[in-house]
Amino acid sequence: MAMSSPEEILDPELKLYEARKNVFPKAVNGTFRRLKWVIMAITLAIYYVTPWIRWDRGPYAPDQAVLVDLANRRFYMFGIEIWPHEFYYVAGMLVMAGIGLFLVTSAVGRAWCGYSCPQTVWTDLFQHVERAIDGDRNAQFKLQDAPWGPKKIGKRLAKWSVWLFIAFWTGGAWIMYFADAPTLVVDFWTGQAAFVAYATVGVLTLTTFVFGGFMREQVCIYMCPWPRIQTAMMDEKSLTVTYKDWRGEPRGSVKKAEAQPGSFGDCIDCNQCVAVCPTGIDIREGPQIGCITCALCIDACDKVMDQVGRPRGLIDYATLEDADLEKAGKPHNPILKTLLRPRTIVYSSIWGAIGLAMLFAVGNRTRIDISANHDRNPVYVQLADGHVRNSYTVNLRNMENRPREMIIGMSAIEGGAMWSNAGSRETAGQTLVTTVSPDSIARLRLYVAAPGAGPVREEFALTVTAADDAEAKDIDEVFFERPETGE
Amino acid sequence: MSENKRVDQPTGTETVGHEWDGIEELDTPMPRWWLWTLYATIIWGIGYVILYPAIPMLNSASEGLLGWTSRGEYEQAVSARETELEPIRQALVSTDIRKLHGSPELMQQAVEGGRSAFKVHCVQCHGSGAAGSAGYPNLNDDDWLWGGDLEAIEYTLIHGIRNPDHDETRFSQMPAFGRDGILQATEIQDLVSHVRLLAGREKQSAAATRGAALFEANCAVCHASDGTGDRTQGAPNLTDAISLYGLDRASLTDTISNSRYGVMPRWGQRLDAATIRMLAAYVHSLGGGEKLPALEKVADTLSEGDGDEQS
Fold first, then answer.
1. CB contact under 8 A, A377 and B14
2. Contact yes or no for A382 and B242 at CB 8 A
3. What is the pTM for the complete model shown?
């Protein structure tokens, strides 16, 4: 390691903190900017519109297409209703989301960061607001350095008000996913909504305002773990924004290049790529953690190249491998060969397998369920007539949105009969019929009595069958216990 | 150490001055927002220490300006819950216990309330599963000494069993046939044989036949000639499979010789009417509860003005 010279040691700049370097990205037009507009419109539309889509589920269930009903512990997503014990579907979707991100990253790099991450989308939105009120990059620099006067205060207040307005609607839309949206809107504005609704809107308003308005790229660089993980997910065949240094270097203005033809590269050092960058980096330093691959520098550079009459693509999407090939003057790998490689195939197979397995599971799940627990305290009860009684806590789940008559049955115990806490021993029999309310669990205490003479522990099964559909059934294995000796 | 500090050339950042096998650490400054967050937490911490109990003292923590305590919060939560439950308790007390079955929801609420109260007041003798033990009745079964309908259970709860200072208590006293010299030891053994025959634990024998005569002379007045007992006096049914003190020869000899004297407190003087009613409902719900006289019969008695509560 090279040692520093004595002069350098004498005057180290002692800083308590590192202030954020202001980033005022310049407006730009081009292919990728248009793509960003489209994706922003789609993602924001999904976010704001989804809770308002209605979905008829009959009189016993909410008619909101997507609803996370935390109070009643139900999760509705269009035709699918998930109960808390089916949370593995949500876990499966999260695993799919994770693997999906791996797949996207290994194929097209940090596309998630550049286009559809909420932090990117909202920051982009906030920057448009900023440009609309303060003007473009240079005007913003000027305003930043200007002393506080009526004009600056006015502009700042206007900008922050619009930001706060957007932030408030961001938080406001979020809570709509957790309750019936039309009802909640009325409740919210009439002060009747739950405290947690106001608190959530408050917190999300604040975080959106701070993250989108002030933290911006610092969230990506310091706070978000995903860029670091993606760094590990990417390889030499992942698309990334590349500055073709072999073509651009050494940099020199058009004038210099005209004066000394052949001694300068294509980069005219106009700094447009730096000016438009929303994270304030210089892509010409190579791939780096601050680059979210939004490709706005490609748009900016292409425009400049057009103006100076040089070929586009000095900054371009390219894989590291293609960059090396191009440098060596060879053609790029075929796109299919780049996309279809073991890594992406494995990711897509896992992704698809989980998806298919979940679809299969959802299609085949029964919406009727019995869960019986043998009561342990006491394990058995001696009855006056010499029989022994065991009791069971039975939960019957009716996961359909209609009341359902259910028949509980028991496999044979000699001389055994059962009744529930709603009936009495006189009504005991081999089956028991009960109606379970829509979308709910009926809990009942089930008694089984059998003659005292018999094995100490006898296995048997409790079954439940829907009265209207013999195919809808479930079974739970339980046991029957007797005292060890007669005396 | 600090004299080893130097500025790292590629980054222009000072090092902290440590070195391990050539590896050094850059003293990169914190981002400003990070520092602000730290300051904000410090301010929050100071406010917290002033407002809430925080500094440990000899006996307790310093009292915060808000006067908050976890005990206070608990008490508030309990009293809030009690206020919430008050209508249920009122409804319970004002409903005729014989008509309680007519309102299943109130019954269910009473059972749940009783479940909690049972864990506080009753488990010491009857066990957490109400299964009892020798001398302490199992409340899950269908054999009752003093009656197993809601009204009888509530009466037993209010007035207790064998409370000498209370006139309305459930009271009975079996003679100590051996200790008081009423029967000879051999006679007691004959009686034991007969009682075991009644309970189906022994086969017919000469001793049992002798015991039958003794039973008719000494026991039938309370336990009835056929041994089925008498609930009005708390005389147990000797013919069923359930026994409070055991049906083996040793236990029965002890019972007949020395008698038994099980006591239950009268909860009427310790618990309020609503809690007792809840306990009655819970015990009744355990699986052996007996039916009340039919509701229409209750209506008849009520119209005659006989609907007063026992308490």
1. no
2. yes
3. 0.74
